[in-house]
Amino acid sequence: KQEVTQIPAALSVPEGENLVLNCSFTDSAIYNLQWFRQDPGKGLTSLLLIQSSQREQTSGRLNASLDKSSGRSTLYIAASQPGDSATYLCAPCISNFGNEKLTFGTGTRLTIIP
Amino acid sequence: GAGVSQSPSNKVTEKGKDVELRCDPISGHTALYWYRQSLGQGLEFLIYFQGNSAPDKSGLPSDRFSAERTGGSVSTLTIQRTQQEDSAVYLCASSPQARGTQYFGPGTRLTVL
Known about the structure:
Chain A is mostly beta strands.
């Protein structure tokens, strides 16, 4: 059974700083891994999808890395802004025999202090 | 374009009643997913559809839960004889293809009294 851990559970940083969110997972036989953000009372917004064959994926100020063999992924946010405040979730995807499943971590609650 | 929509946005029901939750995926998306988010459990996968087929229903919490998808589009999640532990936000997502980026709807908040 896939287990996903995100560290830290909560993080507060001043505006403008760079930061790293960590995700680890126990089953390395993943197809891809997605990072999402969730704003309070709202659904999830996809940020990045990184394939198992990739090492990195970038979108604007966001950069996700993946080390599949060690079961780790990081999300790097550059030059943080107050609008980045949200809960960030990572979700590795297991896919086999026509089935597909994302397993979510418990998230990192990020607060950017103006 | 239109995103994933879910209805109702909020549902309050009495214990023992049946409820139906609806998901309208993004047009043309072949893959559809249901999740549940509750305070004590985080985000939990329920079921995946590719077209109208659900290869694996083992993520459904009990036999009171069922889901169907018709015409490769709209999906309905039905909970029979609701219990208080069913209270949660039920989220639906769709993707243009299997193993692709998932786009989430706003969710249905279910409260069982």
